[in-house]
Amino acid sequence: MTGPIVVGVDGSHAALAAVRWAAVEAARHGVPLRLVHAYDPPTRSYPQIVLVAQDLRRTAEQRGGSLLAESQRAARAAAADVPLTTELVPAGPVEALVRQSRRGRLVVLGSTGPRAGASAVAVTEHAACPVVVVRGLGTEDGPVVVGVDGSPASERAVEFAFEEASLHGVPLTAVIARTGEAEPASRAEERRLLAERLAGWPEKYPDVRVERLVLRDPPVRALLGVARGARLLVVGSRGLGEAVGAPLGSTSRALVHHAPCPLAVVRPSQEAR
Question: Is the dihedral of CA 52, 58, 63, 67 positive or negative?
Fold first, then answer.
């Protein structure tokens, strides 16, 4: 995909961190960066409040322009030469970013606090491309960690994770986690499943050193533990056994709120457009 990396801008420290992270990614991938600020326009049209609505809209546009200018400066400081555009959109933030995702390579947004977390979940549920939620900045030379469970979404996540690890010259840690105690035969089966899900990718990306982990722990807790010190955590949008109609699985949803490093949520390729 050659579309831009799209970043949601709202003036928060988390959004500025997302802008800086995305600028570096855009430069590495050789794609443009698009900064988007969305605002809800006034909807009432009674004659007595038309002028008030116009003033509100003008104020929102002025504030949005200032926020985009600030974000543009942050992006230039992180990656001076990346092609960059800005867009002020009269729509709700979730609606605007989901619409942008149909043409984007990646959507990036910050997530701190309950409202930001809810917006991140909503965008991740409905975006047409992978979404990266930047909570912590991660460790620059840390591994890319990918959760594997055998679902179509995790297969696409593995592909995404290998590409990112190769691009940044860092190792990849593939994790499969199950709850409860396991018999030796069960552990062997899980190691076999992990090997199957990774098959072919080490050959395609021979520069990526791969570590395989089979853990007896709930998936969320296992991934949170392994992701400490990671550059990026990658998961599928929906795990094995979760309802096909569910837009976002329970593990991915929990990680949006608690991941210690940037989190990429990747949908199955058949759902990407």
Answer: positive
Three-state SS sequence of 83-124: CEEEEEEECCHHHHHHHHHCCCCEEEEECCCHHHHHHHHHHH
pTM of the predicted model as reported, rounded to 2 decimal places:
0.89
Q: Could you say which DSSP state residue 79 is in?
A: -
> Which residues sit opposite 90 in a β-bridge?
39
The one-letter code for the residue type at 11 is G
Residues recorded for the chain: 273
Percentage with pLDDT > 90 across the chain: 66
Identify residue 32 by its one-letter amino acid code.
Answer: P
Centroid of chain to Cα 164: 12
Please state, in angstroms and rounded to a whole number, the distance separating the CA atoms of residues 95 and 209.
39
246: its two tokens? 């569910």
187-229 pLDDT, tens digit per residue, is: 788 889 899 999 999 999 999 999 999 998 999 999 999 999 9
